Model the fold of this input.
Amino acid sequence: MSVAYDFDTVSTATPNDLEAFWMGFTANRAFKARPRMVARAKDMHYFTPEGRPILDASAGLWCANAGHSRDPIVQAIQKQAAELDFAPTFQYGHPTAFRAASRIAELAPGDLDHVFFCNSGSEADDTALKIALAYHAIRGNGTRTRLIGRERGYHGVGFGGISVGGISPNRRFFGGMLTGVDHLPHTYDREKQAFSKGEPEWGAERAEALEGIVALHDAQTIAAVIVEPMAGSTGGLPAPKGYLKRLREICDKYGILLIFDEVITGFGRLGFPFAAERYGVVPDMIAFAKGVTSGTVPMGGVIVRKGIYDTFMDGPEHVIELFHGYTYSGHPLACAASLATLDLYRDEGLFERAREMEPVFADAMMSLKGKPGILDIRTVGLVGAFDMAPSPEGPGKRGFKAMEVGFHDNGIMFRVTGDTLAVSPPLIISESQVGEIVDKLSKTIDAVM
Ligand SMILES: Cc1ncc(COP(=O)(O)O)c(C=O)c1O
Done:
């Protein structure tokens, strides 16, 4: 049963039915019976249509890293819309796209210096996987078609992404997906890692499983390995110490491309432009999205190493080198939003701020250790995750209730996966607002235990 919702205070005088919008990754009937609706946002807060502030402890969906409705970004989007609303980037171009690509590439480590644009994290991941396959094919290694993901990995919802992804409900109903895919084991073991701040001491050995996968399939069949430096969607699982370095070594040994999915970890979430820098590991490709525009306009992309780009730049010059792209790749509004966002990150030192804030944030989150029903707390950068014991009513029920109580009673938005609560606030958060998150979470957890 959905309710009629009065949008009066939003933009229209007529009460609307909530039925038509089939919401993604949402319990639609429960939402429509008791909506968690926001109508406005500024800096660290959302506001309900009635004007009640909601502390944004999740940067929306891990994306509003600069905070909400920031003036310089808003103005840049408005100006761009008036000046050049749309231009194709197939065979034509516009300056803002080239500027944005250069600025993004500047932030990437090593020789990652070319950017392929798309519009979301899912598209970024599928693009990276396709580039990997095409790269090997062009070099005459046509047998290298196998893609390796990881259990508990999330790489969006395209067929490529769900194939290498490791979340069973995201895969269950969608047929055979890509063939020739295998998965590394995930890196989480509560017994060995519970209540870790930052990268857990234990777990680098899980990278050795790649050797086993190579032995099973033969390196000559493997195109790429894709991992998130911190698995976000399955509950904020930071890479164990040394894990990513070891993956890099094994990939190098066998000529396998290493893709970092930095859709969440990019643009300051872990205190650096990209987590690659935090871990001192240069991948062959970085998939990004979300924070690149602070969530204001959809944008994603893949940053590739020079050698990969150069491999494609062969053959007659009038011939298209990569048969891939999206109508909205390098959309003027997204590029303008991105340039303004990157300026803001730089001018306000927000990546450094996240790094400085990390210990304060970690201590604050860990203060909830010992609460009844809290099985683990993990932190890294400005990410905190809380595993709650499932309720006797079944897995996910307590997490869902926490989301409702958090929003309706305690004025906080966070992310819920099963019975895990995840927080990832905008990087502009103040110390007192970190305290506020802890208070609100604490009250929320108490209410659902
Ligand atoms: C690591 C990672 N990759 C890919 C995606 C998919 O991004 P999008 O929802 O923009 O397609 C997400 C989204 O949360 C993500 O966290």
Remarks:
- The two ends are 27 Å apart (CA to CA).
